[in-house]
Specification:
Layout lengths: L8 E9 L6 H11 L4 E7 L5 H7 L3 E5 L5 H11 L2 E6 L11 H5 L7 E5 L8 H18 L11 E4 H7 L9 H11 L4 E5 L13 H19 L2 H25 L6 H42 L1
Parallel strand pairs: 1-2, 1-4, 2-3, 5-7
Antiparallel strand pairs: 4-6, 5-6
Length: 302
């Protein structure tokens, strides 16, 4: 595994950007004026409106993609290119206030990741607010911890930890939710702090139906990676419970012999539970790989 570069900043502010020429300059200048000692890294994800050039003129270091790869791909590029020990991710559309960056960094001595939690009652349309509430409720069940804001892009994390989990991040708009679920399930400390999210400048690039379905798929995928029984157990019980009840009714009370559907239901449920147990063992090996990856890079960063 190649060695990680030595950190030369305490904090890198990573800003993924795609066609935000109207606001990215003011965002970069606001961060630079408030925190001149921080590295400001803008990842231009194939913008065609000069966003990268504007960000560079405003004082940011710019990493450019030759074509649009997706927000998650830009986040991964930012993780790899950053020179800070701690990373702060914020959107380039004007939603996040640089004045609130200290709110994220203050708890970092005790927590592995700090996430800015928005107030859904005051943000966006009704259907978007409802969708966020549903996602958070489902995520809370999956990780056994209260998830206050699953999709917030305003967060701070230790770089070596972000590097360890970067390979899990999708290239689309689900990287915040993926990172949150992965850290919770891997046993790392995650804290939420309330923030004020402003109305974005320009048009949102998220498509409710398409990206909403993708969010749900990502959630199931991550839980399958880190806690498979959360998925396999309900699936197995959904087949076992009615199959077992029907079998007991027919065989014990009505004195019928076993039928093919009964055997199939019980066998399928047993197979699902067995797959879940095997997947749990694989998940433990995956966590060991992540821990080893971060340990290998820790000496170089420190």
């Amino acid at each position: 595994m190649p060695k990680q570069k030595r950190s030369i900043y305490e904090v890198t502010v990573v800003i993924p950007v795609y066609n935000e020429a109207g606001v990215i300059g003011s965002v970069v200048r606001a961060v630079r004026e408030k925190f001149p000692e921080y590295e400001v890294l803008v990842v231009d994800d194939g913008s065609v409106d000069g966003s990268g050039r504007i960000a560079e003129e405003a004082g940011a270091r710019v990493v450019s993609h030759v074509y649009n790869r997706g927000n998650g791909a830009a986040v991964k590029s930012g993780i790899r290119a950053a020179l800070g020990r701690r990373l702060v991710f914020m959107d380039g559309d004007g939603q996040h206030d640089p004045e609130e960056i200290p709110l994220l960094l203050a708890p970092m001595d005790k927590y592995d990741m700090v996430v800015g939690a928005r107030n859904f009652r005051t943000q966006g349309s009704f259907h978007r607010s409802l969708a966020n509430r549903v996602y958070c409720a489902l995520a809370t069940y999956l990780v056994d911890r209260r998830v206050e804001d699953l999709t917030s892009g305003f967060r701070a994390i230790h770089r070596k930890l972000a590097i360890g989990f970067a390979y899990l991040l999708p290239n689309g708009f689900s990287s915040p939710s993926t990172l949150t679920l992965a850290l919770f399930k891997a046993g790392y400390g995650v804290k939420y702090v309330p923030i004020t999210a402003h109305k974005r400048v320009g048009q949102s690039k998220i498509k409710i139906m398409k990206d909403g379905a993708q969010f749900l798929a990502i959630m199931v995928k991550i839980i399958s990676l880190f806690s498979p029984m959360k998925v396999f157990f309900p699936m197995g019980m959904a087949i076992l419970a009615p199959g077992l009840a029907y079998t007991v009714l027919r065989v014990v009370f009505q004195r019928h012999s076993l039928t093919n559907p009964m055997v199939l239901a019980l066998s399928l449920a047993s197979l699902i539970f067995a797959l879940g147990l095997i997947s749990e063992q694989i998940a433990l090996l995956r966590l060991s790989r992540i821990d080893e990856s971060m340990e290998n890079g820790e000496e170089e960063q420190d």
